[in-house]
Amino acid sequence: MRRLAAAALLAAAGILAPLVAPHDPDEIVDVMAARDLRPGSEIHVIARRDGTRFAARSVEVTDDALVYERGDRRETIDRRDLAPGEPERRRFLLGTDGYGRDLLSRILYGARLSIGVTILAVSLGLLIGVAAGAFTGYVGGALDVGLMRLVDALHAIPRIFLFLLVAALFGPSALLVGIVLGVTGWIGIARITRSHVLSLRESGFTAAARALGAGRKRIILNHLLPNCAAPIAVATVLLAADTILTESSLSFIGLGVQPPAASWGSLIAAGRDSVLSAWWVVLFPGLAIVISVLLLHLMAKPFRAPLPFQTGDGSKAVPRQPS
Predict the structure, then answer these.
(1) 168 and 254 Cβ atoms separated by less than 8 Å
(2) d(Cα 42, Cα 56) in Å, to the nearest integer?
(3) Nearest alpha carbon to residue 239 among 124, 109, 111, 112
(4) Domain membership flag for residue 21
(5) What is the rounded CA–CA span in Å between residue 100 and residue 23?
(6) What φ, ψ does residue 310 adopt, rounded to 5°?
(7) pTM, entire model
(8) Same domain for 179 and 201?
């Protein structure tokens, strides 16, 4: 139940961002009046008859004029110069950034982007890792040795250099971040899948399936992979948590999502120069990253108990530890 609740919370934060975000995440109404507002602050958006708008901290309406406070000054504007209707009141629950944009809306849209990158990266990593680990673990021989040497070589290449190369060739973008994270993230899943397949390929139910004439593909798909589901699920969820951290780090240093797009890492980067005067711009995106990673680890926890092996006839057998 906790696993489903955590997954639902993460999914809702990203998918429903356009519906639950209180304001347009990229809208800049008035930088002077709305920049770096504290959490819970509010402003009044005043529209002129010519279509332009500005913001004020407070307004006072009289019969023929509107008195407003903007910055440290109190000014007056004739009612005839205003558009019909009352000034719009906007509240910012988490405050605003240095351009006067609503921080809560940008965090919600950042969740949408981070979840999209994570889904892409995890899908690629899961597909490549499970296929490579299961096939080479079952077949063994030179193919298995070759894959392990490839994994060792990939571990020796720092990820940041690869991102720098891709960003220099194609330009930084969320799509490229997801692809690179997926192509480089399959290693752990492949190792885990291979180790469990090695421990199961000589088990009794696998030998029985071979004796009944089952082919290599059927044994891997119907007998081996179902018994590797729990460790693969744990590795997948942990890869998702690592992807969120890596994507945020890349956006923070400018190799990921580019402004004005909302990303948790870029939000923190934008507020690092004003962390003492506008601490909320850094704190709340950082909390979003921490909470997301904790929820993903919470999702992985129920999988960690060993599961009984599923045999070919549907019965269950006690797990055998590899020697």
Answers:
(1) no
(2) 9
(3) 124
(4) no
(5) 11
(6) -95, 115
(7) 0.79
(8) yes
